[in-house]
Amino acid sequence: MSTYKRATLDEEELLDTGSDGIYHTSTMQVGLQRGLGLRCWAEKTHVERKLVVVVCALSVALFICIMTLGLHYKESHPGMCLSEPCVSVASTVLGALDRSVDPCQDFYNFACGGWMRKNPLPEGKSRWGPFSNLWEHNMAIMKNLLENTSMKSLSKAEQKTQWYYQACMNESKIEELGAKPLQDLINQTGGWGLKDPWDKDNFQEVLRIVSASFRASPFFTVFVSTDSKSSNSNIIQVDQSGLGLPSREYYLNKTANEKYLKAYLSFLVELGILLGGSEETSQKMMQEIIDFETALAHITVPQEERRDEMKIYHKIQAKELATLAPAVDWMPFLSAVFTPVALNDSEPVVVYAKEYLQKVSELISNTNKSVLNNYMIMKVVRKMVSILDQRFQDAEQRFLEVMYGTKKSCTPRWKLCVSDTDSALGFALGALFVKATFSEDSKAFVEDMVSEIKWAFEGSLKTVGWMDPKTKKAAKEKADAIYNMVGYPKFIMKPKELDMVFNDFDVVSDLYFQNVMNYYNFSARVTANQLRKAPNRDQWSMTPPTVNAYYNPTKNEMVLPAGILQAPFYNHAWPKAMNFGGIGVVMGHELTHAFDDQGREYDKDGNLRQWWQNSSVEAFKQQTQCMVEQYSNYSINKEPLNGKHTLGENIADNGGLRAAYKAYINWIEKNGEEATLPALGMTNRQLFFVGFAQVCANICSLCFPQLLPGRWSKTGCLFTTHCVLSLHYYLDSQFSPGRQKN
């Protein structure tokens, strides 16, 4: 310190030492005079020499200690990040907090209360959060790309996206055509009893047409996908389907859901009137359709009873379907749906709803043929409502407003058209989106993060006490084998390959209804062609602009589209705490799906088989049962949540948070502490959890127990991961505004 002086050496002593002439001007040089140091050393006593040596040694040691401590302090106290990205994200985080809330009492409101106050539910939305907000951002980018007709060097597929969008935006043409395109289709299908008496025996023919040409799924759904027990091949699959409302519960509890059933009936009646029927005829017909759907709901197996895929998987030959469900003429039906592929009665088929098919066959046989016909036609009408004129869309809006509290009239037309273009030509549109927004540097950075998350997850497997060694070894092998797909599938950046994919999809710039019909036909041909091909790993189930991610068990792959690899989930210039708490948790979530109650049934090659030891299976069920009970204790609108129904997501939430946090701690151990953000008064470990909560914040107008909202899922997740949080939150008495724990 500048004020510090040795007590044994004052100014007078310094003056006295100068009187012997040692500092005579003739001897003052830079350095010692030749021989002076040797003479001084020779004149010193033995004790003095020892003292000098000791002092020098101590001085060197002290210097080394100071340097070491300085470097250590710099690593453990790296200071504050004041770069533009850090200041910006700190402001965002700070604005989302509610510092009046004790984080140890209500962490969700502490982390998200400020955001919820400043973000009222937008008109036209039933729920809102960072996922929704980022999707709006991505749609605005896609809108600009689709409307920029001056772009050069577009591939043919990319041009089709602009034509498809233009046709959707051509509202004058859509209004001019009115209901005629749909009425023509209904007449071509065989008509229905809306305007004139109907009495035909053409059930099998109508079923084939609506299923093959319009991709409707009355009674059941048929599709081509990877064989769960032979992941190197595709196979025809059959499953339950057919309800017009989101779940069977709406039909079974009529008292509790009276307003929804009433709104549904009013909606169908209005559609009938718009298509030429009288109110009386429409009322009678639509009530019969709802009664039939109610009967379907009674035989539909609840989703929570279908989570064990080993139990519901049944591989049979096509000819056995005739015995299982004789009400359907199966071979002509399958041949129509999968034309032009040649099928025979020995074609393998996987049935996921064996008992349901038996019961639906009985229901078909015992139902009036006019009701069956009207029900099938209405399934087609429901698919077409959004592509017809404004009258139909207004009718749908009134129904959706009751169901979800949304006002579609508040949604600009361009948003509907961007979304539909993404659905039909998403990979061609994705090519434009990726070129405009996504960098290869981001791809490499995210891939490194995935490796960190995977490494942390595998490390956690070693500490799972209830899992036997053999199962642990196999689980690690599966985690090692997970294939990571980041950003986009490679083929979309190769114009010739992209054009080849969409070559048979005819698109015009002024006929929206026709484009949608062309898409249904194109989609049917693509599905049929997959039947005789091996599964393609480069074929994604999400388009690149999508704000989401997924894990595919039959491919054992994790997919992270470019659409989600942006703020608030990820920014390469942000502190790692934010990235690991954001996109890192998403990565961990999808990785954990490989080992949830459904994903664990698939081995490292994507095959559905028993690869766990029985003891570990039983231990797993015991471990997850407490999670089922925990989440079932939450309720919305006084109705309890279904912890069994949401078990897979809850496991993934908890496992994802643990893996991401462990990965972040591992990163710190390898790279040292990173600078903190200004103004927050948080450690980076605390910032990790705050960042996690803030990307999961959401508000909703009508919250349904069938879907677990962010507040409940994340609160439950934080509660379950108490072993992690107790270290830095719940046992951190210093965590409060203006304080931080070092």
From TrEMBL:
Matching SUPFAM superfamilies: Metalloproteases ('zincins'), catalytic domain
Single GO molecular function: metalloendopeptidase activity
PROSITE patterns, sorted: NEPRILYSIN (PS51885)
Protein origin, superkingdom: Eukaryota
Gene Ontology CC annotation, any one: plasma membrane
Residue ranges annotated for the Peptidase M13 C-terminal domain, each copy included: 548-696
Top-level enzyme category: hydrolase
Signal peptide limits: none
Chief location category: membrane
Cofactor: Zn(2+)
Topology of the protein relative to the lipid bilayer: Single-pass type II membrane protein
Location(s), subcellular: Cell membrane
Annotated GO biological process: peptide hormone processing
Catalysed reactions listed for this entry: Hydrolysis of the 21-Trp-|-Val-22 bond in big endothelin to form endothelin 1
Transmembrane regions: 51-73
Assigned keywords, A-Z: Cell membrane, Disulfide bond, Glycoprotein, Hydrolase, Membrane, Metal-binding, Metalloprotease, Protease, Signal-anchor, Transmembrane, Transmembrane helix, Zinc
Entry EC no(s): 3.4.24.71
Protein role: Converts big endothelin-1 to endothelin-1.
Family the UniProt entry places it in: Belongs to the peptidase M13 family.
The protein, known as: Endothelin-converting enzyme 1
Source organism per UniProt: Sinocyclocheilus rhinocerous
